[in-house]
Amino acid sequence: MLQVGLFRDFKFKGINSLLLWGDTEGLAHLQSAIATLSRLSGSSFQISGSDAKLSIVITDASDQFSELSKSEHGWEWVCSRATLDEVAVLIEGLENSSDGHQYIDVKGLAEEVIISKNEYPPSLRPK
Q1: Which has the closest alpha carbon to 90: 35, 47, 17?
Q2: Which CATH architecture best describes the domain 2-117?
Q3: C-alpha to C-alpha distance for 6 and 20, rounded to whole angstroms
Q4: What are the residue boundaries of the structural domains of the chain, listed by start?
Q5: Mean pLDDT value across residues 16-37
Q6: Which residues does residue 36 pair with via DSSP β-bridges, in sequence order?
Q7: Given pLDDT bands bounded at 50, 70 and 90, which one contains residue 42?
Q8: Per-residue DSSP letters for 75-101?
Q9: Which of 95, 14, 106 shows the shortest CA–CA distance to 56?
Q10: What is the pTM of this model?
């Protein structure tokens, strides 16, 4: 299971957060998709959430780049290859833990992306 949602003032931090949460299988699927994206220019990967979809798109930017914007069916997270490589390392860090989370900086509709393993139920919804 892998879910996505845009949360305003998540955990009372006063900022917007894009939360990607799931179980071990869901995070393994995300890690595989990120690895594939990192190798293929111009490709994308979609995650269907309860209220909207997230498209993760790779850009040819050479430096760290991470931006979240609204799209027709939800959100689009545009990342550089360097950012996707960082995301892959962060997800790998969750592999041997029973639960946990990692943060990635993003500009646009949110200030951070949180990737969470086994911390939230599938029924979690943005308010």
Answers
A1: 35
A2: 2-Layer Sandwich (3.30)
A3: 9
A4: 2-117
A5: 91
A6: none
A7: low
A8: EEEEEEHHHHHHHHHHHHHHTTSSSEE
A9: 106
A10: 0.90
Q: Which residue type sits at 80?
A: S
What is the dihedral angle through the alpha carbons of 31, 95, 75, 50, rounded to the nearest 10 degrees?
A: 110
Q: Which amino acid is at 78?
A: V
Secondary structure (DSSP) of 16-59: EEEEEEE-HHHHHHHHHHHHHHHHSTT-EEEEE-SS-EEEEEEE
Closest CA to 71 of 94, 96, 47, 102: 47
Count of residues making up the chain: 127
Question: What distance in Å separates the CA atoms of residue 51 and residue 49, rounded to the nearest whole number?
Answer: 6
pLDDT tens sequence across 73-102: 889 999 988 899 999 999 999 988 999 999
